[in-house]
Amino acid sequence: MMMYTYFGDAPEVILLAALSLPIMLIFVGPFARMARRRSQASRASGAATTANIEEGMSNVLAVQSLGGNEREGQRFRKASEESFRRFRIESLLKLTYQQFGSLAFLLSQVLFFVVIAGRVIDGTFTAGDYFVLNYYFFVLSATFSGMGFIYPVLQDNVAGLRRVFFLMDLPSEKTGEGIELPRISRGVEMRNVGLTYPDGRRALSDINLDARLGKIVAFVGPTGAGKTSLAYMVPAFVQPTEGTVTIDGVDLKDVSVDSLRDQVSYVFQETQLFSDSILENIRYGNADATEEEVERAARVAGAHDFIAALPDGYRTNLGTVTSKLSVGQKQRIAIARGLLRDARILILDEPTSALDPETEAYLVDALHEAAKDRLVIIIAHRLSTIANADRIYFLEDGQIREQGTHEELMAVPDGRYRRYASLQAGAG
Questions:
Q1: pLDDT tens figures, 333-367
Q2: CA angle in degrees (0–180, nearest 5) for 421-427-428
Q3: Rounded distance between C-alpha atoms, residue 237 and residue 259, angstroms
Q4: I need a surface site. Which of 12, 31, 169, 269 has the fewest CB within 10 A?
Q5: How far apart are CA 421 and CA 383, in angstroms?
Q6: Residue 191 and residue 368: Cα distance in Å, rounded?
Q7: Beta-strand (E) ranges in 90-175?
């Protein structure tokens, strides 16, 4: 406005200042798309390198025991070199468009000098006007040039934003929506249930079962039969693609996830513990539990003796000793955590895989006690764990092939469960 007020009889000066922006875009704009692609490639390669490091460190015992140190070193070297190569390309591209931007800025200054010098020579402006206009022009052109630089810089960072928005756009559970499930009084029913994962894999088909409170139900079958996928449907970790899953006659698709999971306790096959005291780990799902209740659950899970032998007992922080606990000890803590939670349905995925026979027998007896007022679902391979279950569902290829008690299934000539049990017992 000031240039127009005092030097309005030379509109080309104002026009030259305004042209700094399009000149900058003409020089720098073509690099924007390349900057986005190069930044995406560089970030992806960096993430791959980090994943390579994490994978190697988390499996360090396997690497050392199998003599894979050199191989892992080569893998890291290859991933690191690729990441550095892409980073160099990205940096070179940034340097290139910065130089082109500087060239555009200098070009606008040269054009301004030529025009203003001509106006000073023909007497339109004085020498003093030249210096004033030069100052104003520099301020305007620097501002417009900076605006021109913003576009490729934004494109460079769009790659990072794209990764963030990808996570934000992932579908989330509507945990608070739906019917509030009252306290479970009967149990779980599945009718003509099927499950196909998004990648097209068929996990389950034509599943029909009844699981009532006060019973122990076992899912048995070879690896990959669909046992865990079936158990995941009870707390709605996965939704069936066919058929219905109901609890007390209410379709789980219509139930509030929060009200459902408040009544389901799941002990996973892969033990997950937190960097906190053993006491807080066990009562993670029941924060109001007393220390006496925690100790009682630990005794049932066969964990009390080794916990009491630790320097700080139940106050021992797992963040410092978790690596020193055996797999079986971690598993017992996780089982105690599941038992302590006041849940109507207790699901245990391979709960005895790392337990010794004595502890296993003690736990099985405890589960029968726990099943008096809740439904206990066990996923297991060991016959000693499931032999006394009230009902066994034998799965194969995603379907329930046989069902009944251990005695009933063993009485079936050439039965699948009987053959499975015989193989495990070494009689096959």
A1: 888 898 888 889 999 888 877 677 777 777 788 78
A2: 80
A3: 14
A4: 169
A5: 7
A6: 27
A7: none
Cα distances (Å, whole numbers) of residue 420 to 34, 205, 217, 428: 59, 21, 18, 9
pLDDT digits (tens, 9 = 90+) for 226-260: 999 999 999 999 999 999 999 999 999 889 888 89
**CA separation for the pair 323, 275 (Å, rounded):** 11
Amino acid 170: pLDDT = 76
Order the strands of the 375-379 sheet from edge to edge: 264-267, 345-349, 375-379, 216-220, 391-396, 399-404
Is-contact 238 195, C-beta < 8 A?
yes
Q: Give the residue from 206, 188, 203, 212 showing the smallest Cα distance to 389.
A: 212
HEC letters along 46-97: HHHHHHHHHHHHHCHHHHHHCCCHHHHHHHHHHHHHHHHHHHHHHHHHHHHH
Which of 231, 208, 221, 180 lies closest to 338, judged by CA?
231
CATH 1.20.1560.10-classified regions of the chain: 2-168
d(CA 277, CA 204): 39
Q: Is the dihedral of CA 362, 367, 368, 373 positive or negative?
A: positive
Using one digit for the tens of pLDDT, what is the confidence trace for 365-406?
Answer: 878 877 888 899 999 888 888 888 899 999 999 999 999 999
The model's pTM is 0.71
- Which pLDDT value is given to residue 189? 94
Conformational region of residue 221, where left means phi above 0, alpha means psi within -120 to 50, and beta covers everything else: left
For residue 10, how far is the Cα from the chain centroid? Answer: 63
As assigned by CATH, the class of the 187-425 domain is alpha beta
Strand (E) or helix (H) holding 327: helix 327-340
